[in-house]
Each structure stands twice: as C-alpha cells, then as structure tokens.
Amino acid sequence: MAAAIEKVREAMEAKVPGEDDELLKRSRSARETFINAMDDDLDTGTASGVVLHLARLVNERPEIPSSTARSVFSDLCEYCSVLGLCEEELEADPGR
User: Fold this and answer.
1) Contacts 24+ apart (CB under 8 A), 40-46
2) On the CB side of 54, how many CA atoms lie within 13 Å of its CA?
3) pLDDT of residue 92
4) pLDDT block averages, 10 residues each, the chain of length 96
5) CA 7/CA 17 separation, integer angstroms
6) What's the Cα-to-Cα distance from 47 to each of 12, 23, 50, rounded to whole Å?
7) For residue 67, which of 31, 16, 30, 26 has the smallest C-alpha distance?
8) Cα–Cα distance between 42 and 96 in angstroms, integer?
9) In sequence order, which residues have a C-beta less than 8 Å from that of residue 61 and are 6 or more positions away?
10) What is the 3-state secondary structure (H, E, C) of 49-95?
C-alpha cells in the first residue's frame, strides 16, 4: 500500500499530461464498491480489499498522468482514513 501511495505522489509531482481513463473508471467503480461495503454493516473486509485492489492497479502502471494521480490519491486517502490504514504515509503529505 505504501508503494502505491508513493507512486501516486510521484506521479502528481511529475506533471505527466493526459488522463488514464481506464484507471479513473476502475477508481470510480472501486468507490462504489467501498461505499456499499461500508454501508453493509461496516464490511471492512470487502472495503480493505477495494483499497488493495486500487493499490495493485496503481502499481501495475508504468506511468500515471498527474491529473489521474490526484484523483486516485484523493480516493486512497479517503479509504485509508476511514479504515485507519497507512496513517504514517498519509501524514507525510503536506497537501492533505
């Protein structure tokens, strides 16, 4: 998870143009699954799986456009905050 957070941070700073439509689509789908899991009697197991899946998608990409990285970083931060994950990695971000 920490590697995905770092990769997204680096992508935001790299100012790579464009969008990764597939990653954005999967990130939106992950959001819906995460929300449904948390609404389903706080199904943290499924919600954690969503976070790990999104991290895996990030790590599979050789390069992430900066605007896509900002969106995915925001989602990862939200999910991790709700679940109490990666607090040290997130606190290291001055933009949060």
Assistant:
1) 44/83
2) 32
3) 57
4) 87 92 95 95 93 93 94 91 76 52
5) 16
6) 25, 18, 5
7) 16
8) 25
9) 20, 23
10) HHHHHHHHHHHHCCCCCHHHHHHHHHHHHHHHHHHCCCHHHHHCCCC
Structure tokens at 71: 């969106």
**Encoding tokens for residue 80?**
């991790």
Question: Given this model, what pLDDT does residue 2 score?
Answer: 81
Give the chain's domains with CATH numbers: 2-91 (1.20.120)
Residue carrying the six token digits 């998608």: 57
3-state secondary structure of 40: coil
